[in-house]
Amino acid sequence: MANFLTSSIGKKFIQSVSGAFLIIFLLLHGTINFFSVLDSLSGKFGAVAADDTLFSTGDGLFKLGCDFMSTGFISIMVPVLALGFIVHIGYGIWLTIDNYKRRGGIKRYEVASKAKNDSWSAKNMAILGVLILGLLGFHLAHFWAKMQLPEMFGIGNYEDNPYTLLMATFSKWWMVALYMVWFVALFLHLEHGFWSMFQTIGWNNKKWHKRLKVTGIVVSAVIVLLFVATAVNAYVEAMAL
Ligand code: HEM
Question: How far apart are the C-alpha atoms of 55 and 76, rounded to whole Å?
């Protein structure tokens, strides 16, 4: 087992499994965020019932989604999610250093002879990963540090109105632009990562090659568009105030 985890294919396998887990988190997170766009369409953007209970009928969909994220089962998943990120980042760094050492150059990600055919994303997975991680820290400071963190540890006041945070974050155009840079990096990272995941488990024959590439692009685009729509909608809502 230890040998597998440190072998080249073992490392890639762990990278794929942790990546798949993070993709599932992003689909859930993107969908709940997108509820805020549906709230705008139904006129419930900003609706937080005064009774301050979880899952109140007066709440907008986005608030209900945030309540769901604070329930027991999901809270247990927070350390698991953090572990998923740590494993993915740790093995990602290890893989990158390995490849660098073995090929003697920073430009290649997988097999040297095919490096010139690799996409820009494939060659820059590590750089994209660092960019995504850096902006994730920034993002957690905007939302998680003001909602779940104080609530979990009972420190200070936590923000109970997620619409307020949405508008506070996206009311500045340059903040929307910065998040867009993050989303583009995320798209490129996911699009290659998705395909690479299937290659690692051996689904890279001719017939499936194209299908998996297209599926990877579609899944990554859906995830990122959910985030883009949320940010743009929050900007529009903040401007209308
Ligand atoms: C428009 C874009 C986004 C919005 C509006 C948004 C909103 C939020 C909110 C409201 C929370 C706090 C949830 C809570 O404490 O209950 C949160 C947490 C978090 N976000 Fe985002 N998010 C966005 C994009 C992203 C992206 C692209 C990633 C990953 C690359 C991400 C990763 C996380 C993580 C890891 C947490 C902490 C875990 C959690 O609370 O679920 N978010 N985000």
Answer: 19
